[in-house]
């Protein structure tokens, strides 16, 4: 079978976006890494939130080999993944006013912690209110979003604002509105979204910057190792025991 032209075009588009984001967001990534390092150094806890497919990038930094053990998923029931039935419920819940406040109030998040909120459009009530409420509680908020949506779409929150308007640091994924990199003359709808690739890269780059900052300060980053390499389980056991009061994905 011959190579797929469109498959190659998607790789080209994704690589181009990654290079663009690397160059355009380098200072913001460094700032986000410093904020994460500050929180770890001060004894705070880290949380990541995303709804729908944005949750994939949040999950990618939680309980992850090579990741920070103190990063926790702030889960909102019904919006984390497409496993909920019907899958469309998650999209509907993103537009429900007041849900973010209820989730934060019942979560372990407190002043001095840090929350990364991932939302491609940043226009729905859930991520907007999550950022507003988190900052009111004294959390540092990092938003990962496509700023283009704020100029090309309307907010679905009563304030008329977007996620980017309520963050201490914003990481712009530079994803075009609609999140589809390819078109074809014989296919009516655009396709091949790249937001997950780029957003996950932004998250991992931020974690790398945080680890670098901690090391520069003489602090050993609380990193997990793969459980599939010799000594990995023992290493992780020690890290989790040392940081058990800041880890919420295990009892």
UniProtKB/TrEMBL annotation:
Q: Output the Pfam families linked to this UniProt entry.
A: SIS_2 (PF13580)
Q: Which residues form the SIS domain?
A: 36-220
Matching entries from SUPFAM superfamilies are given as:
SIS domain
Report the family membership. Answer: Belongs to the UPF0309 family.
NCBIfam families in alphabetical order: PRK02947.1 (NF002805)
Official protein name in the record: UPF0309 protein AB0K36_33900
Q: Provide the species name.
A: Streptomyces kurssanovii
